[in-house]
Amino acid sequence: MSSTSEVGHAKNVVNLQKITQQVSTYSLYNPPIAEITVANLQTLYTDADGKLTEVGDKRSANKNAIIARQTAFENLSSTCTSIINVLEIVGLPQGTLNQARSLTQTIQGSSRKSKTSVEEGKEAPKTASTSRQSFTSKAENFGLLLQMLSTLPAYTPNEDNIKLQNLNTYNDSLRAATLAVDQTESELNTKIIERDRILYAKETGVYAISLKIKKYVKSLYGANSPEYTTVSAIEFTKRK
Question: Where would you tag: which of 62, 128, 143, 181 has the fewest CB atoms within 10 A of its CB?
């Protein structure tokens, strides 16, 4: 993805409108190439501004999905603890109990180790010790734990939140929340690619077009002219 800041992208679009308005007042401005005519610049601005809006919408959707996923997973650790507490008193073979404990420890691992506060709407930083503690991994391991519970006739809790049927519903919500993040991230990435193509394509992007406009105005009025000085002062950021 582009390393240019979001502010930089927006500034490029705003300045495209500014330079278009400026050259539209120049009586000699009649470029020999269609891509820098005032009409085409106005269309380019509309397209670029629309793409910024689309990126913003998809970014918001992704952030909302991340927050929703964090909320969905908040009770997973305590739910697993409650399940283990029941299993420990129903007389299971030690090997079965150990297997359930192992799955629970895998699910709970990152939440117990993580001490770093995470800004709302952002992902927790990834480290080697938590690499397997992704949300997808947690949901998968929770699913395995539920499969085990389904084979244990002794698992008959009275608490609604840890009854097997409700646990399966909860696991479905975890998977759906994770899928929503993946989906919205994919959509965001696509819109970023489309935005960057409009802004930074080698010959037809906003940045490239701005250079052509300035060169044409310079050829019309001269390097020391106020017309060229005015448009040359309108800055556009190149993608790094």
Answer: 128
